[in-house]
Design brief:
The structure holds two protein chains of two kinds. Chain A is α/β, with parallel strands linked by helices. Chain A is 31% helix and 18% strand. Classes of the chains: A alpha/beta, B alpha/beta. At the A-B interface, α4, α5, β3, α6 and α7 of A face α4, α6, β3, α7 and α8 of B.
Chain lengths: 396, 330
Amino acid sequence: MQKKVYVTGLGAISAIGKSVEEMFLALKAQHACMGGVERFDTLLRHIPVCEVKADNSDLLKMLPHQIDRGKDYSRTCLLGMIAAFQALQGSHSAVPAEKMSIVGATTVAGMDYNERYFRALTEGTANPYWVELLDCADATQQIAKATGIFANITTVTTACSSSANAIIVGARMIRNGLADKVLVGGADALTRFTMNGFNSLQILSPTGCKPFDAHRNGVTLGEGAAYLLLESENTALADDIQCELSGYGSTSDAYHQTSSSPDGEGAVMAIRKALSTAGLTPDCIDCINAHGTGTEVNDLSEGRAIETVFGTKIPPISSTKGYTGHTLAAAGAIEAIISTLSIREKLLFPNIGFENAMPEVAFTPNILLQSADIHHVMSNSFGFGGNNVSLIFSSC
Amino acid sequence: MAAYITSFGVISPYDAASERRAADLCREHDTILRCVEPDYKQLIPPVHLRRMSRILKLGLGAAKICLNKTGNIEPDAILVGTGLACINDLELFMRSMLEHDGQEMSPIPFINSSHNTVAAQISRLLQNHSYNNTYCHRGSSFESALTDALMMINGQEAAQILLGGIDEFSMHYYTLINRINGKRITGEGATFFLLSPEATGSVAEVTAVKTFYQPAGDVVHSFLSENHLSIHDIDTIFVGSNGNEQDDSVYDGLMRELPPETRVAAYKHLCGEYTTSGGFALALAAQALQDGYLPKSCIIRQGTQRPPERVLIFNHYLRQNYSLMLLGKR
């Protein structure tokens, strides 16, 4: 019998709210938050994005007193610390720091400092210590420093499925006895670099993303962070347990560096693996939080993969990218949290932005806010490089 | 948690000519060691090779060297640690973006700058659909990947794991990091291993790994006692001295209290300091366990004359990321 991995804490910040409860209210209100870039200069200002409406000094104010105010933090790091501290509040069990760990995730890291000070750093006219803000480890290490957690902390990065893979690595730490509590999740700020990167791939939606719509025209980028506190059955207090991470699958498409295979082969394998590790059959899944980015390729590939696994009995499907935008490395954890909210509130959240059915698949996404008896939720995350992850959260 | 090293493949700066002490090199000048690269045409199909960035060639090359020794076993997990990932490609896109914001740009450097590029391209080259993950955590990146590998083997989630550590020299990062940390011998490298639960025919056994972020106290003794060992059970310790006085002072405390029979060895004079140098150290230690002796230039203090049987690797990166790896003779 596999050891159980419980979720005892949740923390999140995104364009639709600065906490999990604020985000829940926005989801219920079916409230999208798209607009042009306000926080940095770019000629891509006309393209809709989902920014967190707070500048860095406001974000710093949201952090607890033990955060060193005399230090500079990248926006990714600030977002990550906010979500991580919220998640830690959820658990009341006493676990020593050496039995805790952190698995963070990011793709953007300190790119805001890098793009603003790239030349100054090279020329030696900027604060030389900013070099430590730039890499993927920084946000995780700042969370570690502020919490006293020090053992086996790490950061994973598999593009848009990064924090979903972080959740898997954290679960493994608990199952193998390396830790009793693991903060798992990720953060990514919106930056000029990412905007221009996705623009160079010509997949930014000029109008706002429309997941699983026949006329979908690309991704809407977002920013944010989410952390879950995973806890072992040895330490989790009954009152703290929100749900269980019951299954996971992580596979590789081995198809193309930026594009998913047309039949979603890697996604099919990830979904089947998640089901088998959870000991569930497809008909047990009550709803799917899809990756659903709104690109032509992803939604077709994911839609076909879901049909391959679920056949004609397809559970309600929603992509919540219409609310939060695509938050890249944070997306897997943000959507994991939305999945746990579906279990807690017994609610299906609508796939906003949808109008017309895709001709290639037989299903349409769920467009109504509705009550449902939800026990098992599947959350999919697929990344560049073909890193496909499917997670299953179950009620306890 | 333990696993056996079936084989490994290394692309590093190490050749006979570079077998000198790190401290000596560092006194001479500000040394940068670059990889001695193989003829990639023997390892990677030319159609792929043409469009590959250097870090991809290093990574795929070392992975192929490792797998070729096993008769091309199909891995059921591919894990890659990389501290700075595709930093040179990132810099390329950054320079282009700073000049051409909002305009049409070539997406190639952006695609190549994704941190998971090496692991993802190994999957693609091998047409391998298994678990594929990239650990990007400064000086603990390789050891994090190894931790996940040992957990997967322990939990019977995988039985043939391709594990790698890779970082490429970046002049930009080198300039920035030296400004705050002073000189050290700098390097790069790609090291790949095939790990399995099967002892037969293996090179050595990895019995434990742990990483620490800015630990408060002594980590070596607590790590050994967690593994039911004492310092007297270890015949050989590899330390990560890199010629930087501050960095090397971390090892002083342990050195002072070591039993006289403990053999002490260094390795960064062969590969230089880089975020995943732990991969190189693991390969070197595994080779020493198989051969029954260490390369002469590695030995700082002879201690015992007996062949190595139980080896500890103690490394840190910029006094932030500490790591310990424990190996045994097969």
